[in-house]
Design a protein that fits this description.
Layout: H1 17-27, E1 35-39, H2 54-60, H3 70-79, E2 87-91, H4 96-110, E3 114-118, H5 132-137, E4 142-146, H6 168-183
Parallel strand pairs: 1-4, 2-3
Antiparallel strand pairs: 2-4
Length: about 180
């Protein structure tokens, strides 16, 4: 994975706020059914080829995809859509049943296209690039809900990242689906 040059100073460290929180939950033997990480859920693009994968990630960090990851990028592009009009539901392997429940609820009650990805985080580092990583580290079930941020949104962390570029109707549909899903956990 490329160097995290565009990350805040505490990213993937014990000083990250969500890491401190997850650690305190673990220390207090708290019962956690689910942690949901909303990581950019409002950008949708109906244009073909608006969705990228590893290629777009390395491009974002100003690098080229290493040769040994190009076959994996090709596989991702064959399995997942090239149009950025879906919600990604991402989990590590041990949280896959939570991801499956959320996928079902969001599709059924939110009427949103979803794509689920459940893998060991060491296999694909992109899946642990947000707060859910901290809860995984402490053994809690956690899922990231995402529009895939910089893999899709050309405005990510730029001055053009403005409210009018987001799809509020789709965001409300996502929330409706999540509420229906978590009610039954």
């Amino acid at each position: 994975m490329p160097t995290q040059t565009k990350s805040p100073p505490f990213f993937h460290s014990g000083d990250m706020g969500s890491f401190v929180h997850a650690k305190s939950l673990k220390a207090n033997n708290s019962k956690v059914k689910a942690m949901l990480c909303y990581e950019m859920i409002g950008y949708f693009d109906e244009r073909p080829n608006s969705q990228g994968y590893l290629d777009r990630a390395f491009e974002f960090f100003g690098k080229q995809t290493p040769w040994f990851l190009k076959p994996f990028n090709w596989i991702l592009k064959k399995i997942y859509p090239n149009t950025g009009n879906f919600l990604g539901i991402v989990s590590n392997w041990s949280s896959r049943s939570l991801a499956k429940k959320l996928e079902k609820g969001i599709m059924e009650f939110g009427q949103i296209k979803t794509r689920k990805l459940s893998l060991p985080s060491k296999l694909l580092p992109l899946i642990d690039m947000s707060d859910q990583w901290c809860y995984w580290k402490h053994g809690f079930p956690a899922v990231m809900l995402t529009d895939t941020s910089f893999l899709r949104n050309p405005n990510y962390h730029k001055q053009t990242d403005l409210p009018h570029t987001l799809n509020y109707e789709k965001m409300s549909q996502i929330i409706k689906g999540v509420v229906a899903s978590v009610t039954n956990l």
